[in-house]
């Protein structure tokens, strides 16, 4: 509708409109949750304690700049170098694997981040893991989304990792990430994952998302969210004229509003219930992601160096806190968001495979 400029900024403007609309609605029109009597975006308490780390540590670092390709990035291999060096300086890591597409930028590179090599590296990371072991995964690169086919995604899309050879071999969807990395791990193993990429909130398909107070966010029959999404999609249509996309969104959200009015489970409720049933994990799996599923993560230039904004915020927060081993997981999440607030639109997320109590000090 507004030409190329409208198309270019449609998603960013729509996301901001949705955020502002939702905040205003939640402030002036709080909803009653049919099960708990709280607002529709409510919190429930955590129940499971983290197991102690007293075994081996193994780490996998993946950075993809897509050198020479159309959508080349600048800071992803820098992220790998910085994150790897940071954790190596603070922990004894027994085994390390590094995948990048530029060995000159990261001489420690073991292999190229092709689809096959990434999947093989995932299997290497968890192989032989037992109670007390700690695993670390850091990924910095492109993230994407494809249409969901099994009804487990409230958004209707699966999130994806994009290997360096994606044009030939395809993307890696979140279902596969969960099945390869999360499902096989036994009780007592801790896996800490850091995904600095677009659309990354549910890239591991973990069922529990945390707020900055350490409680689990539960969203049921969220009428305000549906209204905010409708307003945002209308705004996006005015900017980019995409009739097919706005038609699908209107169909889903109108259905949610009707269902909420009648006290029925919405598509969001059903998708989350299915996710909880299928994807709770035995292991202690925690994931920091760069943004929400409907957001992008910035490939930025910070202090003269190209870097992923979320990777930078993680290191800055831990370095700032001199007694970093005493900062809790939810404190880390809150402070990372503070570092990025006002500079970037992305909002880092924290999720887990079990209802873990996260008032413990952050540790890998």
Structure, described:
The chain is of the alpha/beta class and 364 residues long. Helix content is 38%, strand content 18%. It is built from ten helices and 14 strands. Strand 12 and strand 13 form a beta hairpin. Helix 1 runs antiparallel to helix 6, helix 6 (223-240) packs antiparallel against helix 7 and helix 9 crosses helix 10. The longest helix has 26 residues, at 3-28. The protein is globular and about 55 Å long.
Largest sheet: 7 strands, mixed
Distance between the termini: 49 Å
Count the DSSP helices: 10
The CATH architecture assignment of the largest domain turns out to be: 3-Layer(aba) Sandwich
Order the strands across the largest sheet as they lie in space.
Answer: 3-2-4-8-11-14-9
CATH domain fold name of the largest domain:
Rossmann fold
Helix content: 25-40%
What is the string of helix and strand elements? HEEHEHEEEHEHEEEHHHEEEHHE
User: Beta-strand level of the residues, as a percent range?
Assistant: 15-25%
Based on secondary structure, the structural category is alpha/beta
Report the mean per-residue pLDDT as an integer.
80
Shape: globular
CATH level 1 name of the largest domain: Alpha Beta
Number of strands: 14
Count of discrete structural domains:
2
| Radius of gyration, in angstroms, nearest whole number | 20 Å
Contiguous uncertain segments of 5+ residues: 31-42
């Amino acid at each position: 509708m507004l030409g190329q400029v409208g198309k270019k900024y449609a998603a960013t403007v729509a996301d901001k409109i949705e955020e502002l609309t939702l905040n205003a609605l939640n402030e002036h029109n709080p909803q009653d949750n049919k099960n708990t009597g709280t607002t529709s975006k409510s919190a429930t308490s955590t129940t499971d304690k983290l197991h102690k780390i007293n075994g081996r540590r193994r780490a996998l670092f993946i950075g993809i700049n897509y050198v020479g390709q159309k959508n080349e990035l600048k800071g992803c291999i820098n992220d790998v170098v910085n994150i790897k060096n940071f954790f190596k300086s603070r922990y004894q890591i027994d085994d390390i694997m590094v995948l990048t597409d530029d060995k000159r930028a990261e001489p420690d590179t073991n292999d190229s981040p092709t689809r096959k090599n990434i999947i093989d590296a995932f299997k290497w990371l968890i192989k032989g893991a037992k109670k007390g072991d700690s695993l670390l995964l850091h990924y910095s690169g492109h993230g994407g989304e494809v249409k969901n086919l099994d009804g487990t995604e409230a958004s209707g899309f699966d999130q994806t990792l994009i290997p360096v050879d994606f044009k030939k071999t395809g993307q890696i969807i979140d279902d596969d990430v969960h099945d390869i990395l999360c499902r096989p791990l036994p009780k007592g193993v801790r896996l800490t994952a850091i995904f600095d990429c677009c659309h990354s909130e549910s890239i591991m398909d973990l069922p529990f998302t945390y707020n900055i107070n350490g409680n689990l966010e539960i969203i049921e029959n969220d009428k305000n969210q549906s209204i905010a999404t409708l307003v945002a999609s209308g705004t996006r249509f005015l900017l980019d004229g995409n009739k097919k996309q706005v038609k699908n969104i209107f169909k889903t959200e109108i259905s949610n509003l009707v269902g909420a009015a009648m006290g029925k489970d919405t598509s969001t409720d059903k998708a989350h219930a299915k996710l909880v049933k299928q994807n709770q994990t035995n292991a202690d799996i925690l994931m920091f992601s760069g943004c929400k599923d409907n957001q992008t993560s910035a490939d930025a230039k910070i202090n003269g160096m190209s870097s992923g904004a979320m990777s930078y915020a993680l290191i800055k927060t831990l370095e700032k806190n001199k007694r970093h081993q005493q900062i809790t997981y939810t404190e880390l999440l809150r402070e990372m968001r503070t570092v990025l607030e006002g500079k970037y639109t992305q909002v880092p997320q924290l999720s887990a495979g079990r209802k873990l109590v996260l008032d413990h000090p952050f540790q890998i």
